[in-house]
Amino acid sequence: MARHKARKHKWNPYTSEVQRFSVYPRIQTPREESVRVGETFTVPINDVDEKGRGITSYRGKRIIVYNASLGSKVRVKAVKVVGDTIYAQIIKTLSEADTEY
């Protein structure tokens, strides 16, 4: 009697890369545009953290803006990009929300 196990072949038509054998071109999925250091953009400040930094989002990324006030619309420059978080510096304040305290 044979003591070895029957080996299965490694190529499986359902798990192998079918695109490699296709005659049709591969459809490219659009990549999310990344933000680079030095890029400028305009954002409204939606929230402020305990350190007084403005928090907002842009292109699916979280932006932390130094010395921003809540409700203001500012033009910022990306200073540092870490994962999904962008640290930015204010270039110009475009408008402030009229709030009374």
TrEMBL record:
Residue span, TRAM domain: 34-92
Taxonomic lineage of the native organism: Archaea, Thermoproteota, Thermoprotei, Desulfurococcales, Desulfurococcaceae
Signal peptide: none
Name of this chain's protein: TRAM domain-containing protein
Organism name: Staphylothermus hellenicus (strain DSM 12710 / JCM 10830 / BK20S6-10-b1 / P8)
